[in-house]
Queue: 4 jobs
Job 1
Amino acid sequence: MKLVLIGAGSAQFGLGTMGDMFRSRLLRGAEICLMDINGESLERVRKIGQDFIDGKGLDFTLTATTDRAEALDGADHVIISIEVGDRFELWDQDWNYPLQYGFNQIYGENGGAGGLFHSLRIIPPILDICSDVMRLAPAATVFCYSNPMTSITTAVLRKFPELKFVGMCHEIASLHRYLPGILGTDFENLRLRAGGLNHFSVLISAEYADTGADAYPDILEKAPGFFEKALGYSDIWEYARRTGHAPETEGSTHQPILDHSEPSRPWSDRKLFREILKRYRLLPITVDSHIGEYIPWARDTADHQGIRDFYEFYRRALSTAERMVIDDSVTRERVVPIIEAMVSDEAMEEMAVNIMNNGLIPGLPDDVAVEVPATVSGRGIEGIGFDTYPRGFAALLRNYTGTYDLIAEAAIHGSRELAAQALLAIPSTDRIRDLDALIDHMVQAQRPWLDYLK
């Protein structure tokens, strides 16, 4: 078996994913091929990985190359986690330049005007990767961790409908963080199904495994009080550290990254979250910074301090990721259990994958990607649909599916006109003046990645 990691020069992605693979007995004997365009970073990750294999006597072959065709030739599974350029410099531009021209947004990563330009940068190189997969390894399954997830997945599956391409996201793991505390039961005692668009998804059903009773009434009763409790920054740090989302700092593994005079505050980044819980009677699976990108009234209620705190935390965490080491004590990414289920043909249910809708969520377009549960087996990954979906929240989703439709078409065809129409379709867009000036500014600032727009 050949497992290919594209973007493996990132220590966080390369070392973390290798650690998950090294933990797997079913994957023993596989070739793990690391690919990145940065040869220096790639060699650093390869050496750490090879030293780990040698030190533990593991049965894996580790290779590395900057040649994508060489990496993909004969691949069985391909995992993509790439960005282009300086991630945070471009993110700052995505966030702040639209605000300068009067286009409202609260985070600028995946939705809003910032998410549009992020999508237009990242989709073309991922389409190039997928074109090579279709040529060199057409039977391979491709797992993508890059954002913006919905626009990438929609564009890829429109251009390559035969490709076995799946978008993967960490956000569903947030349910592990707080549902046991809300319900007073182990996470393993809960049967949960969530669905929507990536970063714009809610819990649809919940029941207790031991009794079969509906757990949603308890969630609606107990969750509001739970999220009013004070949460110390040290608690946030400890959770992030244990789940692999915080850097190990010299001398301590329990240092808060943010310097605040207040020792704690209510659960951050969840004011909009609580409004959705109240107004729609649904529990979001993500936080204000993510879900707020898609809702025009989010800026009126979102936790803007919490959003900025998370951004700074994330930036610092990734900037120190080069200190990371391989850890095979716990599986952090869900992609390895998915590959194991495909290899062993032992059916399992995966909580969230991003695939083309095709009727999985009623009322949404078939040709836009959605985030749904899935059954994984030797047959591959098959989405689990919903017979019904909450009308109120579906209306919010529909507001954004038109934007994703236009973003995918703009990226595939290199159309500036469609990009402008996508910006006008974003629900938070409330102006047309300076639209062309903003697009001109972004194309000039991000010319290496956006000059294909004509």
Job 2
Amino acid sequence: MKCWQCEREAEGVCRFCGRGVCKEDAHSMPYIVTIYVGHDQVPKAIAVADVLYCGVCKPQPSPIAMPTLT
């Protein structure tokens, strides 16, 4: 697989979009695995730090409504 940005050999895959990415073009950002309601009804998240990110895709900060899927 080739890197999405430079076409060198990819060494990983973006966790958010699946694009191949080499070490030189790779970035990292946190990835939320799940969200739940904790003590006192406070929402909490289980996240993984430093997940591979291509730097090109745009992970959305909040859920997107998809009414056509119902």
Job 3
Amino acid sequence: MVSQALRTLVVEDDPDHAKLLELELGKISELSFRIEHCQTCTEAIKRLDAEEFDLVFADYWLESETTELVLDRLREAGRGVPVIVTTGANDEYIAATVTRAGAHRYLRKDDLKVPMLREAIRDAMHDSQALSELAAEARDARERLSHLTPRELQIAKLIGKGLLSKQIAQQIGCTEGTVNLHRSHIMQKTNAQSVADVVRMVVRSA
């Protein structure tokens, strides 16, 4: 049974390559795609800023630009859309570069066939979902910690490093009782159920 169509943006300045990719995607029986095209990084960024897509295929070289511009924009905007970068070159440097920039998968155009496409789409969407969940956890942690005073936040970060109340008191120059009072306020303001919750918040917010 074919699932709901994935809204897919293909960023490709060669119409023939774009058409070949669309034909191969159409052969994946368990998925369906609603494909839209654009030919430049500038146009892709505008489309991605204005609309929601489930999947992006982007050629690495687009005229005089590289698709790193698109990846940078998605990262800055906190968008977790899966991106698969394609290229005609067999270049490990490009693969490493786009992966560091945020691409979820990298495929040579010679490999744009059903088996490889199916695997790349599955893996990219899985990775994107995992990263989106981590980003959501980080946003939640930062929001909860934002309710703390500067002193409470300082102590929360020291708790996050595994320091005990006595150690924290020695480090910041106050009594252990004062640290415990701040700890109680931290728990209340962040809705933490345990010290372990505070540690997780600090780690996730970093």
Job 4
Amino acid sequence: MTPDPHVHPEFYDGTPTKRLVAWGIDVVLIALGTVAVIMLTALVGLFFVPLIYFALSFAYRVITLSRASATWGMRLVALELRDRDDRPFDMATAFLHTLGYSLSVAMPLAQLVSIVMMCSSERRQGLTDMLLGTVALNKRA
């Protein structure tokens, strides 16, 4: 079971802000990867920028979440994602979380709902987190 926010609030303190910073770092890393792919394709990739960005973003998130339960941005701000049993993500959970994230990003209203939920729910869970029973926690020392 994940830490109780009433008994251990330190695990949830500042997580919405840290998630925003981590997201910004991840966006920059994925954008740099997209530029690299475009350059490697002799600029032909310019015709497929959204597809390349989406594919790199999806792969980056699934791989980093399944290996360390955090993207590189999350690692830099000392966050980790945990499943409902307080375990690190496995490949299936990483895939489902990334799928939920991708769908919510594609629908602005769902993204707005997710942001509001992260800022107002006691475990600071977004929409995908609520559906999967996952949480973002401050990394344990």
